[in-house]
Specification:
The complex is a heterodimer of chains A (305) and B (582). Chain A has 305 residues and is mostly helical. In chain A, 69% of the residues lie in helices and 1% in strands. Chain A has 2 domains: 53 residues, no CATH class; 214 residues, Orthogonal Bundle (MetI-like fold). A two-stranded antiparallel ribbon of chain A has the order 1-2. By secondary structure, chain B is an alpha+beta fold. In chain B, 45% of the residues lie in helices and 12% in strands. Chain B has a 3-stranded antiparallel beta sheet. The longest helix of chain B is centred in the N-terminal third of the chain and has 26 residues. The chains are: A mainly alpha (305), B alpha+beta (582). At the A-B interface, helix 3, helix 7 and helix 14 of A face helix 5, helix 14 and helix 15 of B.
């Protein structure tokens, strides 16, 4: 961004002239704004954090303390028994393993096929692109519908296989369009230079374009991985119990009692909380390091130079 | 421009064709058959000679057995709180069924929360299993052609016919009969309704406050219950057990999760005692007047007004927590288990877990529970168990008929008959195998063998005990394969508290008269839904306003009635009576 000469009050406060801090007298209104703003931000942060911290607290508390309503942000009857129980119980780890496999395999396949679709689409000189792009965009808004998709997967013999979980969402049109926009920005001269040096189109894509596209690859990795990690719908449609991902298992234990069957019995609250914490933990751990890519990802392709 | 006209014409033509196709559905309702008072068995003679040529044995008092092993696909609703494990197939219920009948069940299992969604999807996609158990509402499948009308095949089912004829099920079956005179599921049939949903109270606190529910319940009204709870609360306040501002009733199955925005179980139970539709039983609000032989909209009646006034009193008097109608079920149970509240909705299957939770939370000897029967209203003395003697049932798919052929299909139907209607299969599915899991007592009752437990039958394993839960281990006493049957069969596992509650209800309450069924066509069904959906939303909203004190029944009743009229409740009444009177 070019410097347009505008100096925000913050920059004035921290800016320096001749090596000395520049002290601009801040007016009262701005100080009030800062205080109010900070308070609002703290409140929003607290409101966002509270449910998660409460969940962690519940997962570390005894069931008796939870039922008594004594558990707040500080665990009561502190113990790791619930974690030991959940992690030693075959079910949870099995579903967790499934999720890891689906996420890894799904993300790799999605990246390969999405990028291989996006690259040719970025070449406007190809005649087929004119026809293909609207055709692909059309699928963003119109689908076959639930029953035809279900019949397709079942008749292909994919029901209750990993493919049923991954294939139907392997290529996201929106992500393909983001990648297409990014690839379109690759300097043509570099590609032509590669071709002059003897590379074919695929070689140009693999050896020149992809190495230059690390930001979009990183962003898409994140997007696809999150999509597979959180997805439960394909499991609901196509997978039997032993192949469920952990997200669907979570759903079933959280909904264990109530809405559909009053005869249902409740899964203990601390077990639910513990399962939820363990499920979101990887995302929570990784997110601070990669969250900038989320923002960048949304901007990619949206801004033209 | 010309191009546009052609496109428009084509579109219009295709729409006309579509509409013609749609309107055809009403005429395909088919010839109307009547539901007989008694069913004649038209099956071939079940003599040994005939059965040899059939390739399987069947008949009343006999175990179905196929000479050659057959495999039938069957859906299974898998509950997360007692999930199916391999031992069910290798040594438990499915193995025993196979040993007895030579029928291998190929189980297609879905989580119980999503069971109906998955089953609906499979049926609509033409991927249905042959046998489809645990169906409460079959209306979504009637017109699709994927389900075989059950009524076309009942004559081949000796156990079904025997129960139907013995207990005069004809009036009940008529309530599920469609406009073409057929019914599409083999329903669970009960000899009589046993009270299931009621209230559990903290007997120790009631007694300490000087309230003896056991002696009152035979004839107590909702007013009596309110007075009793006020006395109990006064006692609790005086003992420092709660504050004057606290509520001592925060009910279960009425809020976010189970209440479905209509007040759930509490308003249903209370509504039945006033002869109105409310809570879980609101449906489309329509009720049948036996004297006038016509249908009416119950939420605008004086009985409904009286019901609302009574329900609102519990909140106004500081007894019933208005959060009852918005809280999660867990919040309600937690308040009861830790002693904050003294009364809560309860059903037969949840009573054992409730006792176990109280034991853990309050400690043995620190509490006493009593299952009371619901109070009556000042207008009627109706049993809240209701009067329809049917429950969820089994459908069979057209796919089975197509793939097995008529003879193979009838063979399967006879297996279904044995599995769902024979006393032998009922006992197997509920109690397991005699000598392995249970034994008969001297008085002809049943009891689990030493070391065997079953939370599903009310005999949960105590903490630290060394034993086997026959439901968790082998799949007996699950919810898929036993429902209905005789009072003796239904009550053979009752623990004393439940037995007392059911008997007290039977002795002290009257069975409400059975309303006749109506058989709307597909179009009429749609019309009913179109009127009833917004209308009932309105009724539920107003009902909860009245009950929680946001509106005053005495002041706002007319506005409520006007709102219902504005949503065309009279149109619904007219439509119902038109269908009923043909």
């Amino acid at each position: 961004m070019k410097n347009d000469g505008f100096k925000s009050p913050l920059r004035s406060r921290r800016g320096a002239v001749g090596g000395r801090p520049l002290r601009v007298r801040e007016n009262m209104g701005y100080q009030v704004f800062l205080v109010v703003n900070t308070i609002i931000m703290i409140l929003i942060s607290a409101a966002t954090l509270y449910p998660f911290l409460y969940l962690v607290s519940q997962s570390l508390s005894s069931e008796k303390a939870i039922v008594s309503g004594h558990v707040g942000l500080i665990p009561k009857g502190f113990n790791f028994d619930t974690y030991k129980f959940v992690l030693s119980k075959g079910d949870f780890l099995g579903y967790y393993k499934n999720t890891l496999i689906y996420t890894f395999v799904g993300t790799v396949l999605s990246l390969i096929f999405s990028s291989m679709l996006a690259y040719p689409l970025s070449k406007t000189e190809l005649k087929v692109v004119k026809f293909l792009t609207p055709f692909i965009i059309f699928t963003m808004y119109f689908g076959g519908g639930l029953i035809p998709n279900y019949v397709l997967v079942v008749r292909l013999g994919l029901k209750n296989t990993m493919a049923a979980f991954i294939l139907p969402m392997m290529i996201s049109t929106y992500y393909v369009l983001l990648m297409k926009s990014f690839f379109a920005g690759t300097p043509k001269d570099l590609e032509e230079a590669g071709e002059l040096d003897g590379l074919n189109k695929f070689g140009v894509f693999v050896r020149i374009v992809l190495p230059l596209s690390k930001p979009i690859i990183a962003t898409m990795t994140l997007f696809y991985a999150c999509m597979y990690w959180n997805n439960w719908y394909q499991a609901f449609l196509y997978l039997r119990k032993e192949k469920w991902p952990v997200a669907y298992y979570l759903q079933t234990i959280i909904r264990g009692q109530g809405a559909n069957d009053p005869d249902a019995q409740q899964v203990a609250t601390n077990i639910k909380s513990c399962s939820m914490v363990l499920t979101v933990l990887p995302i929570i751990c990784v997110y601070p390091f990669i969250q900038k890519y989320y923002v960048q990802g949304m901007m990619l392709g949206g801004v033209k130079e | 421009m010309k191009k546009k006209s052609i496109v428009s014409l084509s579109l219009a033509a295709s729409m006309m064709l579509g509409m013609t196709a749609c309107s055809g559905s009403e005429t395909t309702a088919g010839s109307t058959t009547t539901i007989p008072d008694q069913i004649e068995t038209t099956a071939p003679d079940a003599s040994q000679e005939d059965q040899k040529s059939l390739g399987y044995e069947y008949g009343l008092g006999k175990t179905f057995h196929a000479d050659e092993k057959v495999t039938y696909t069957i859906f299974f609703s898998d509950a997360s709180w007692y999930p199916m494990v391999d031992t069910w197939k290798t040594e438990g219920i499915f193995k025993k069924i196979e040993d007895l009948t030579n029928v291998h069940l190929d189980i297609i299992s879905y989580d119980s929360n999503d069971y109906m969604n998955n089953v609906t999807l499979d049926i609509n996609a033409g991927e249905a299993a042959y046998i489809i158990p645990k169906i409460y509402d079959d209306s979504a499948f009637v017109d699709g052609g994927a389900i075989v009308p059950a009524s076309d095949y009942v004559q081949y089912m000796p156990y079904f016919v025997d129960f139907y004829n013995t207990y005069n099920m004809s009036p009940d079956i008529k309530t599920i009969t469609r406009s073409n005179g057929k019914y599409y599921k083999f329903p669970g049939m009960l000899e009589a309704q046993a009270l299931n949903y009621t209230f559990v109270i903290r007997q120790d606190i009631f007694e300490a406050a000087g309230v003896d529910v056991a002696s009152m319940e035979a004839d107590w009204t909702w007013e009596d219950l309110l007075e009793a709870l006020k006395t109990v609360k006064a006692y609790m306040v005086s003992q420092g057990m709660c504050k004057e501002t606290d509520y001592i009733w925060s009910d279960l199955w009425c809020g976010n999760e189970s209440g479905q925005g209509n007040g759930g179980n509490l308003l249903k139970v209370m509504g039945i005692t006033y002869d109105v539709n409310a809570g879980w039983a609101i449906a489309d609000g329509m009720r049948y007047d036996q004297d006038k032989d016509e249908w009416y909209f119950s939420p605008t009646t004086d009985e409904y007004k009286a019901f609302l006034e009574m329900a609102a009193k519990f909140v106004n008097e500081g007894i019933l927590d208005p959060e009852t109608f918005i809280q999660d079920d867990t919040e309600a149970t937690n308040k009861f288990y830790n002693g904050q509240t003294v009364i809560m909705s309860m059903n037969q299957s949840q009573f054992a877990p409730c006792k176990q939770n109280c034991e853990e939370m309050l400690g043995a000897g620190n509490y006493e529970l009593y299952l009371t029967i619901p109070p009556r209203s000042t207008l009627y003395n109706y049993s809240t168990a209701g009067n329809v003697r049917l429950e969820n049932g089994v459908m069979v798919s057209q796919k089975a008929l197509d793939e097995l052929g008529e003879d193979g299909f009838i063979e399967m139907i006879r297996f279904v008959d044995w599995l769902f209607y024979s006393p032998e299969a009922y006992t197997l599915c509920k109690w397991g195998v005699e000598g392995e899991t249970f034994e008969y007592t001297a008085d002809g009752g049943k009891k689990l063998l030493d070391g065997m437990y079953c939370g599903g039958l009310g005999y949960g394993m105590p903490e630290g005990a060394d034993g086997i839960d026959i439901r968790l281990q082998w799949g007996y006493a699950g919810g898929n394969y036993f429902y209905g049957h005789t009072i003796a069969e239904m009550s053979d596992n009752y623990i004393p508290e439940i037995k007392h509650m059911v008997e007290s209800n039977t002795a002290n309450r009257e069975i409400p008269p059975l309303a006749p069924g109506i058989a709307p066509t597909e179009d009429q069904n749609e019309e009913i839904t179109l009127i009833a959906t917004p209308l009932i939303d309105e009724v539920n909203t107003w009902t909860l306003w009245f009950v929680t004190g946001q509106k005053d029944v005495s002041k706002d009743w007319d506005a409520f009635v006007a709102a219902c009229e504005g949503k065309n409740c009279q149109g619904l009444v007219d439509l119902y009576n038109k269908i009923y009177k043909g």
